[in-house]
């Protein structure tokens, strides 16, 4: 049977989508605001970015692109830069829709449609999700394992779990810091975790204590690990931490079932 257009899976081509974003940003007379016509780029640069409270040390949109080496005169954009660009667009658009009048037919439906509908779909196709609140949004890799335990931990811990898959978290020092903080949560409940799965608990402790997370690496074979090998072990440690947290919930459900049967 022939598929409909709604069944077609279209992979995201980073370079093509980068060109599409440029087209949307520089479409003429796209936004009418306070008596002035803007393209979306100028609107973000002049009206939105300067007053965005999470802009950090960036002065405007121009400054952001310059410091991240994103060049709209080029047709090339690596995936990391593309994700940073998409993330800032999500944040700027969130601020923009607070002041734009979408009932005004002067605004470009093509631009609005891309920002409201196409950009979220691109994020989904890249297997990311938007995490945060109205004032600060970030992109995080979608992970069913992480999602399954978010409701089982305190809010500060759930934030760490989401941050581990954040687009900034390919940096080894960021991963070390997150795992160090998650280990404090594990240690606060270590007696319970050890009783549930002592082997997994001990493996986590070997990684965090011998591979440079809680203490400097001082002995072999750990000293011979390359940076990439350490990153692999850190990702394995993260998965084991998720398993321990989920194991506690599984045990609770098992006990509830046993008690129910006895009633």
Describe, in plain words, how this protein is organized in 3D.
α8 (172-188) runs parallel beside α10 (227-262) and α9 packs antiparallel against α10. Residues 1-9 have low confidence and may be disordered. β3 (128-133) and β4 form a beta hairpin. By secondary structure, this protein is mainly alpha-helical. It is built from ten helices and four strands. The chain has helices spanning 14-25, 40-48, 61-67, 79-96, 109-125, 144-149, 155-164, 172-188, 190-210, 227-262, and strands at residues 31-33, 36-38, 128-133, 136-141. 58% of the residues lie in helices and 7% in strands.
Gyration radius, rounded: 23 Å
Low-confidence runs: 1-9
Multimeric organization: single chain
Terminal-residue CA separation: 52 Å
Shape: elongated
Average of the residue pLDDT scores = 89
Instruction: Supply the helix-strand structural class.
Output: mainly alpha
Task: Tell me the major beta sheet.
Answer: 2 strands, antiparallel
* Number of DSSP strand runs: 4
Compute the number of helices: 10
Relative strand content? 5-15%
Strand order of the largest sheet: 1-2
Measured as a percent range, the helix fraction is 55-70%
Give helix and strand order, one letter per element, not per position: HEEHHHHEEHHHHH
């Amino acid at each position: 049977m022939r598929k409909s257009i709604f069944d077609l899976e279209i992979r995201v081509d980073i370079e093509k989508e980068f060109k599409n974003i440029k087209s949307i940003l520089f479409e003429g007379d796209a936004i009418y605001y306070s008596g002035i016509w803007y393209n979306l780029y100028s609107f973000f640069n002049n009206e939105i970015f300067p007053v965005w409270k999470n802009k950090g040390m960036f002065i405007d949109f121009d400054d952001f692109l310059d410091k991240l080496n994103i060049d709209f005169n080029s047709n090339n954009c690596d995936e990391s830069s593309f994700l940073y660009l998409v993330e800032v667009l999500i944040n700027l658009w969130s601020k923009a829709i607070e002041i734009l009048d979408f009932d005004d037919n002067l605004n470009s439906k093509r631009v609005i449609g891309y920002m409201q509908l196409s950009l979220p779909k691109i994020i989904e196709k890249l297997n990311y999700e938007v995490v945060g609140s109205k004032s600060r949004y970030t992109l995080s890799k979608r992970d069913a394992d992480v999602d399954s335990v978010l409701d089982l931990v305190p809010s500060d811990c759930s934030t760490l779990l989401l941050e581990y898959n954040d687009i900034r978290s390919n940096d080894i020092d960021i991963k070390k810091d997150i795992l160090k903080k998650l280990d404090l949560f594990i240690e606060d409940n270590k007696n319970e975790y050890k009783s549930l799965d002592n082997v997994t608990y001990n493996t986590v402790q070997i990684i965090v204590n011998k591979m440079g997370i809680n203490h400097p690496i001082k002995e072999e074979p750990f000293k011979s690990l390359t940076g990439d090998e350490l990153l692999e072990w850190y990702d394995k440690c993260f998965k084991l931490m998720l398993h321990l947290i989920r194991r506690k919930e599984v045990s609770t459900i098992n006990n509830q079932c046993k008690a129910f049967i006895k009633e």
